[in-house]
User: Which sequence fits this backbone?
């Protein structure tokens, strides 16, 4: 499975919550930009709803694997780092075709207020360089559906 992604040993990253597994960093992606559709709601007046440019300009998204499973670790602009699998307790599923898709579903009451689901699509070279596309559906005080893309680089 990792051979398809071209994952040479790019650096071992330990994740708390997994005492026996060694997690390998496949790639790290940043500077996401794209579009979002904002739905009217408590903090979005009807006249401000609709399509808008969207971005996550600071921070990063890192893809990890233990050889069987995948994890997404995101770092925000303040440098806080979270694992969707271990810190957020999300359900993580993956599928490999010509690209890798990692689907994340968050349980109700999750700490990441209102994020319902995310789909990460990676198209990577054998080295781990390429592109990531993030599709996100958020149902909260600010409800939106967004699609953003960013460049990925292996260490």
Assistant:
């Amino acid at each position: 499975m990792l051979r398809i992604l071209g994952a040479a040993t790019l650096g071992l990253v330990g994740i708390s919550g997994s005492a026996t597994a060694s997690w390998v960093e496949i790639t790290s992606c940043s500077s996401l930009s794209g579009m979002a559709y904002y739905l009217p709601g408590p903090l979005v007046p009807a006249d401000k709803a609709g399509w808008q440019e969207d971005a996550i300009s600071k921070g990063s998204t890192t893809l990890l694997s233990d050889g069987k499973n995948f994890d997404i670790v995101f770092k925000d602009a303040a440098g806080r780092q979270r694992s969707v699998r271990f810190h957020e307790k999300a359900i993580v599923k993956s599928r490999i075709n010509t690209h890798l898709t990692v689907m994340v579903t968050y349980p109700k009451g999750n700490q990441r207020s209102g994020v319902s689901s995310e789909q990460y699509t990676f198209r990577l070279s054998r080295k781990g360089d390429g592109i990531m596309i993030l599709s996100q559906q958020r149902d909260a005080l600010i409800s939106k559906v967004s699609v953003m893309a960013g460049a990925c680089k292996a260490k």
About this structure: The chain has a mean pLDDT of 83. The first helix runs from residue 2 to 5. DSSP finds one helix and eleven strands in the chain. The helical segments are 2-5.
